[in-house]
Amino acid sequence: MPLAASILFAWSAWQFHDSQTGFSSLVIFGERMKPRLVPAIRDLPLAFTPGGGYDGQFYAQMATDPFLRDPDIDRSLDQAPFRARRILFSWTAYVAGVGKPARIVQAYALQNILCWFALGLLALYWFPPNTARHVTLWVATAFAGGLLWSVRASLADGPSLLLIALGTLAVERNRPWLSAALFGIGGIGRETNVLAAAAQLQIKRTWESIWRLALQLALIALPLLIWFDYLHSIYRSRMFTAGGIMAAPLEWFLWRWQGVVSDVAAAGWQAESRFSLLILVSLSVQALFIAVRPRWKDPWWRLGCAYLILMLFFGRPMWDSDPSALRVLLPMNFAFNVLLRQVERPYLFWPLVVAGNVSVLFGLHLMRFPGTTGWL
To answer: Three-state SS across 325-353?
Structure first.
């Protein structure tokens, strides 16, 4: 089953390839942003979409100069200090593209696809395909709505999840320094990735273990602190703008629920917010499951709990339209599926799998999977 699912994913991803523009349609460059593109890629054969495009176009441009020394980079970004914090996967694209702009753009689009396959292989460690339950959990994890969204829009969330999963595996195998290094590297891909440090919190009641943990947490924070210091030399106080991403607990989550229920009740499945409903159901079930079944000794529970707490404080930008909280909370999704292995009763397991992963349908819609047109 995982092999067949991987072939289906590869076929779906290939739909976005063009002989002239390559995989650049996955980056979602907007027509309206075309005059602001950095000179390095302005004249390249790129696929454009109507409107302003999406976030991946900014990180792809950062990849042409990942130390942000070119003033044209600053002018090409919508929120330069905010985007600049997430530099890791612009660096990897620069290296993979050997510094050549045309190759960099293609590398930036392809790295999400490659990370999907790597994550699928890694997930076999927790979900070996020897039972129907494991196969279902593997498929739900590999085709998670947030993960496919990351592939479709060339975002940092999928590659970030790969690093977090590798780090948590290192925790499970009692390799705390390796996990700390992986979590620390992930922090410069997206700031919220440092929450994976929660998986590291294995405290034994000795001074030696406390000091060791403190050093590991410092190692996790170090790469992000160094990069922030570098950015501060460029942007000064502007780099700390948050754009209303955080707010009072549950304020905008409940606001979004209210709007979605009203819209779907009025228009049914044709409502514009039907996918938002699927996303909210998934995230709510995942959060409730983690909250009511505490497993402090399990690194996956600690990881899921950290992202659950983050979810409570998300502001309006994370819940507007089809909530981008879905992809930011991918580690909670992964943790939820790993923890579901412990649920033995079928009358609990199967409803939880379906309800907690129903946002898979949104991801399949984004990736134009066969059979999803017409009814999704």
So the answer is: HHHHCHHHHHHHHHHHCCCCCHHHHHHHH
Please list the pLDDT of the chain residue by residue as tens digits (376 residues): 788 899 999 999 999 999 999 999 999 999 999 999 999 999 999 999 999 999 999 999 999 999 999 888 888 988 888 899 999 999 999 999 999 999 999 999 999 999 999 999 999 999 999 999 999 999 999 999 999 999 999 999 999 999 999 999 999 999 999 999 999 999 999 999 999 999 998 767 788 888 999 999 999 999 999 999 999 888 876 766 656 788 899 999 999 999 999 999 988 888 788 999 999 999 999 999 999 999 999 999 999 999 999 999 999 999 988 889 999 999 999 999 999 999 989 889 999 999 999 999 999 999 988 777 656 6
Q: Please measure the distance between the N-terminal and C-terminal CA atoms of the chain and give it in whole angstroms.
A: 23
Per DSSP bridges, beta strands 29-30 and 48-49 are: parallel
Q: pTM to 2 decimals? A: 0.95
Q: What is the largest CA-CA distance in the chain?
A: 62
Residue ranges of alpha helices (H) inside the chain are: 2-14, 39-42, 56-62, 71-76, 80-84, 88-96, 101-123, 132-142, 145-153, 157-172, 176-187, 207-235, 251-267, 274-292, 299-312, 316-319, 325-328, 330-340, 346-356, 360-366
Q: How far apart are CA 293 and CA 305, in angstroms?
A: 10
Q: How many CA atoms lie less than 13 Å away from 373 in the CB half-sphere?
A: 4
Taking CA atoms, 241 is separated from 25, 83, 84, 157, 215, in Å, by 30, 11, 12, 21, 29
Residue of 250, 279, 26 lying closest to 146 (CA atoms): 279
Question: What single-letter DSSP state applies at residue 246?
Answer: B
- Integer angstrom CA distances of residue 237 from 66, 70, 82, 233, 277: 20, 20, 11, 10, 38
In the chain, where the domains are located: 2-366
Nearest CA-CA partner of 339 in 279, 296, 278? 296
Query: 211: which residues sit within 8 A by CB, 6+ positions away?
Result: none
